[in-house]
């Protein structure tokens, strides 16, 4: 790493790099090698309270800064991320197992939210409403919501932070970021860059802890926290929602998924194969918008399975720092076990392994394709979060929509068709917050990211993103009739 200052092993609270009051620490391990790469503080509730208190104390002065001043801070932070993208990507790769090319892409993607919201800070417009009487004037303004807590996942250790704190900081709200215990180093590195960008003390805070439930409870129950944004599993999201009820905290929850990828008979099969490949095996299948179920119409089923299997066999697994490698390890032993259980269950119920299906070494697992998958299989109901692609068969458009929607989740979905009428029908019928039409990669800072049903609520990114981090206030001016 060129910039050694980016490797931080302390939490960042009120402008100070600090350890836990208890002195406790935990280890960060490289999933590709099993090597311990750092030791960071294991904070408890009392430590997190200090971070919240610091953010609360910094709020009045920070919210009073002009939107242009806040925009300038964000822009400097964005420039620093881009300047240090190689070092940030290296940190991300060694702690998450994400291959280097994807890590470089995530740095740019994550930084794009900071760039976007640096611009949106100056566009948090209100409204003037035509009055209902001559002596009144009605105005709507938007104001900073207050202290924002962000709980982020290990699979996108940079972008999931920036997608939350970008709009919060743009709106005038200080933040407390709880980084994941598996991948805290990337989050600490960008906290250092935020410090270098000039954010005042207390405005940006980053806490590390191996006790996520204890820290999460404090962030939910502490009344000084006005907004909580969480990305993670649906069961944990429900717990956080319950814990936030006592203070009626505003929430944004981006939770689990069970993304369908539908291939109709009129699709461009080559394009569909490539779309499924990049969407399924991105970060080794460990993303919330990864394809979980491939649904193929019976007329092209055999052809798709053959083409897709060949494409998957061409994926290169190995050294995650090698820019030619496309598939890295799973994050931990629990994830590996889940992949093996899903494959075993599917095979017992009639699925055929057309490629892969075996552990390689350590936490590496062969990219796997399962033909003849059915709704009775565990993988049809649960998010596998690994390099396994089950392929289901359907007959009609109506059946495909029914199969796709037959889940409690509703985050991302995808389909391929060259019939423009079908594209509109299916896009409107799919019960998902995001739909990719003839496209397998849909994430961008320009569009609203989020789900429906048990995949959560709230949107991040786009022009809609700021609204979830601001309060809308109505002003009624009376006694202004003409003299």
UniProtKB/TrEMBL annotation:
Q: Where is the Aldehyde dehydrogenase domain?
A: 17-474
What is the top-level taxon of the source organism? Answer: Bacteria
Which residues constitute the catalytic centre?
254
GO biological process per UniProt: gamma-aminobutyric acid catabolic process
Q: What is its EC number?
A: 1.2.1.16, 1.2.1.20, 1.2.1.79
Q: Does the keyword Oxidoreductase apply?
A: yes
Which Pfam families does this one have? Aldedh
Which keywords does this Swiss-Prot/TrEMBL entry list?
Oxidoreductase
MF GO annotations:
glutarate-semialdehyde dehydrogenase (NADP+) activity; succinate-semialdehyde dehydrogenase (NAD+) activity; succinate-semialdehyde dehydrogenase (NADP+) activity
| Cellular component terms per the entry's GO annotation | cytosol
Q: Family, per the entry? A: Belongs to the aldehyde dehydrogenase family.
Identification of the protein by name: Succinate-semialdehyde dehydrogenase/glutarate-semialdehyde dehydrogenase
State the organism named in the record.
Rufibacter quisquiliarum
């Amino acid at each position: 790493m060129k910039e050694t200052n980016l490797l931080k092993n302390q939490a960042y609270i009120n402008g100070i790099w600090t350890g836990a009051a208890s002195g406790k620490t935990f280890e960060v391990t490289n999933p590709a090698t099993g090597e311990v790469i750092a030791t960071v503080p294991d904070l408890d509730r009392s430590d997190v309270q200090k971070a919240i208190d610091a953010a609360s104390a910094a709020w009045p002065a920070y919210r009073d800064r002009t939107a242009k001043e806040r925009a300038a801070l964000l822009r400097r932070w964005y420039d620093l991320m881009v300047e240090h993208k190689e070092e940030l990507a290296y940190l991300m790769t060694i702690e998450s197992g994400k291959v280097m090319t994807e890590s470089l892409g995530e740095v740019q993607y994550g930084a794009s939210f900071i760039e976007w919201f640096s611009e949106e800070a100056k566009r948090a417009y209100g409204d003037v409403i035509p009055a209902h009487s001559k002596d009144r004037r009605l105005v709507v303004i938007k104001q900073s919501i207050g202290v924002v807590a962000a709980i982020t996942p290990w699979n996108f250790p940079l972008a999931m932070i920036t997608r939350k704190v970008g709009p919060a900081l743009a709106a005038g709200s200080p933040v407390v970021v709880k980084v994941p215990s598996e991948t805290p180093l990337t989050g600490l590195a960008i906290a250092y860059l935020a410090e270098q960008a000039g954010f005042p003390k207390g405005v940006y805070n980053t806490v590390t802890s191996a006790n996520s439930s204890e820290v999460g409870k404090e962030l939910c129950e502490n009344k000084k926290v006005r907004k909580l944004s969480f990305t993670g599993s649906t069961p944990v999201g429900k717990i956080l929602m319950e814990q936030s009820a006592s203070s009626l905290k505003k929430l944004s929850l981006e939770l689990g998924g069970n993304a369908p990828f539908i291939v109709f008979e009129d699709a461009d099969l080559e394009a569909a194969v490539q779309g499924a490949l990049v969407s399924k095996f991105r970060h080794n299948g460990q993303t919330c918008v990864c394809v979980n179920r491939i649904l193929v119409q019976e007329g092209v089923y055999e052809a798709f399975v053959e083409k897709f299997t060949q494409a998957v066999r061409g994926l290169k697994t190995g050294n995650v720092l090698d820019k030619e490698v496309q598939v890295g390890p799973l994050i931990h032993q629990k994830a590996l076990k889940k992949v093996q259980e899903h494959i075993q269950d599917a095979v017992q119920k009639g699925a055929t392994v057309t490629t892969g299906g075996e552990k390689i070494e350590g936490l590496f697992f062969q990219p796997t394709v399962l033909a003849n998958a059915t709704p009775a299989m565990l993988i049809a109901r649960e998010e596998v979060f690994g390099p396994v692609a089950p392929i289901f068969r359907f007959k009609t458009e109506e059946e495909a929509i029914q199969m796709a929607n037959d889940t409690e989740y509703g985050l991302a979905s995808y389909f391929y068709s060259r019939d423009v009428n079908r594209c509109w029908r299916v896009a409107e019928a799919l019960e998902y917050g995001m739909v990719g039409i003839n496209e397998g990669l849909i994430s961008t800072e320009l569009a609203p990211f989020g789900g429906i049903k048990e995949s959560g609520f709230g949107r991040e990114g786009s022009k809609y993103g700021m609204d979830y981090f601001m309060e809308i206030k109505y002003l009624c001016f009376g006694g202004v009739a003409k003299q």
